[in-house]
Amino acid sequence: MAFQPSKSKKNLTKEEGTLNMNSMMDMMTIILLFLLKSFSTEGALVTPSEELRLPVSQQGEKPKKELNVTVSKTMILVNDQVVVPALNEIPKDQMIISPLAAKLAEYAQQEKDLEIEVGKEFTHEVNIQGDENLPFEILFKVMFTCSRTEFYKMRLVTIKKG
Amino acid sequence: MAYKPSMRGKGEFLDIELDIRPVMNLMVVLIPLLIASAEWVKLGVVEINAPPAKGPSGGAGEGENQDQAKEKEMKLGLKIAIAHDGITIGNAQALLEGEQGEGPTVPLTAEGKYDFELLKKKLIEIKKKIKGKGFKDEDRVVLTASADIEYQTIITVMDYVQTYEDENGDIVALFPQINFGSILQ
Predict the structure, then answer these.
(1) Which of A20-29, A109-118, B48-57, B176-185 is least confident?
(2) Residue A132 domain flag
(3) Does the entry feature the keyword Transmembrane helix, yes or no (chain B) (predicted)?
(4) Would residue A36 count as lying in a domain?
(5) Given this model, what pLDDT does residue A11 score?
(6) What CATH number is attached to the domain comprising A154?
(7) Contacts of B88 (CB under 8 A, 6+ apart)
(8) In terms of residue numbers, what domain contains A151?
(9) Are B52 and A150 in contact (CB under 8 A)?
(10) Which of A12, A41, B23, B170 shows the greatest Cβ crowding within 10 Å of its Cβ?
């Protein structure tokens, strides 16, 4: 049988306990610093989706924000605007993808105007984000179109391994 | 001289704890915010510099001069072609043949995958042979592939073609300048 609890009041004074927050604060400070370090102010360069899985590579430099040509599984976008809605509608016998060329020429003209008006240098740079299953034919046509429309410094965006 | 501190008792020490609740509040807000905006995937870019397309402004005379200048230079013109049965290395004059004397230089492995390690070995051999012979384009390679070769394969080949590790474990450039050639028929 259990003991009967003591009836005297000597154990009634409750002990004042305080939670020790120091170690938690230490942890939070470290996490905060780590996250601040990896914080990028440039914003997301790539919007990941099912339609666009970038290929994996071992090397590569840090990407810069430039004109984006995205070739997903089904369509081509320039700076998040759909330019070619269906990849299979690209004619087989033509090297230049004409809607893409038109859009890029527009951007090139804008850049040139900027160069004249405010002195911002036209870098001729373009980031190409392609899906990993993209056939070489489409990739080649996209690159050919880019180089024809004065964006000849092409960069292929990849996911860095390791 | 400073005054001597009073020896009179001031009563008990007041035990005050620092109020860290506002700091905690701040942390609780900041940490989710930073986690949400952190980069989880590391992106990289592979640079390819295509020559600027010849515009209509480049006159015919200029072109001829360029051609003459080109003839004087020693050109290697190394090409790598990716097809479904393997990878072939060659240039305008010759194709490097496979072990059996025919077929692609680097045939598929037994599992039906591309043999990137062998490709790298062959390229290192070529690099050592041509080193110091005065080729103008000893860092350049032209990559070409069949129409339906996947992008991932091309990127992987580019990975293997650009650098290699020499005997001392240093990473040395193999053929870092990559150009793309037209689609294999």
Answers:
(1) B48-57
(2) yes
(3) yes
(4) no
(5) 64
(6) 3.30.420
(7) B80, B81, B95, B96, B104, B105, B106
(8) 56-160
(9) yes
(10) B23
